[in-house]
Amino acid sequence: MNSPVFDPRPLAPGTLRVIPIGGLGEIGRNMTSFEIDGKILIVDCGVLFPEENQPGVDLILPDFSPIKDRLDDVIGVVLTHGHEDHIGAVPYLLRLRQDIPLIGSTLTLALVEAKLKEHRINPYTLTVREGQHEKLGPFDLEFIAVNHSIPDALAVAIKTSAGVVLHTGDFKMDQLPLDDRITDLRAFARLGEIGVDLFLPDSTNADVPGFTAPERDIGPVLESVISKAPRRVIVASFSSHVHRVQQVLDAAHANGRRVAFMGRSMVRNMTIAADLGYLKVPAGVLIDAKKAADLPDNKIVYMSTGSQGEPMAVLARMANLEHQIEVGKGDTVILASSLIPGNENAVYRVINGLTKLGANVVHKGNAKVHVSGHASAGELLYVYNILRPKNVLPVHGEYRHLVANQRLAMDTGIPETNTIIGEDGTVIDLKDGVAEVVGLLDLGYVYVDGSTVGEITDADLKDRRILAEEGFVSIFVAIDAQTGRVIVGPEIQARGFAEDEAVFDAVKPLIIRALTDAAENGTRDTHAFSQVIRRTVGRWVNSSHRRRPMIVPVVIEA
Question: Can you tell me the distance from the alpha carbon of 393 to that of 377, in angstroms, rounded to the nearest whole number?
Answer without folding.
Answer: 16
